Amino acid sequence: MRMRARLLTGLGAAIAAAGCIPVQIQAPEEPIEINLNVNIRQEVIVRLERDAAEILDENSELFGAPTP
């Protein structure tokens, strides 16, 4: 029984010591670059098309023929 208690105590100490591994955090040598080139061309074109369609609907007399 004493042998088992010593074994468990030693095992517990070993597990506790293993959890105390030092962690090192170091800044990188080069700066971190975040590339945020976002393509918004499609959204802009759709908005312009919608705005143009609304303007043509409101001012159909500009071109002499009604818009479909």
Short structural summary:
The chain is mainly alpha-helical and 68 residues long.
Task: Describe the 3D structure.
The protein has two helices and no strands. It has about 70 residues and is mainly α. It is rod-shaped. The protein is about 50% helix and about 0% strand. It has a domain of about 30 residues.
Number of E strands: 0
Please identify the structural class as seen in this structure. Answer: mainly alpha
Number of separate helices: 2
**Shape descriptor:** rod-shaped
Point out poorly predicted stretches. none
Oligomer: single chain
Rg (C-alpha, Å): 36 Å
N- to C-terminal distance: 95 Å
Helix amount, in percent?
Answer: 40-55%
Mean pLDDT: 76
Major sheet description: none
Share of residues in strands: under 5%
The topology string of helices and strands comes to HH
Question: What tags apply to this protein structure?
Answer:
rod-shaped; single chain; 2 helices
How are the SSEs placed, and which strands pair?
Layout: H1 2-18, H2 41-58
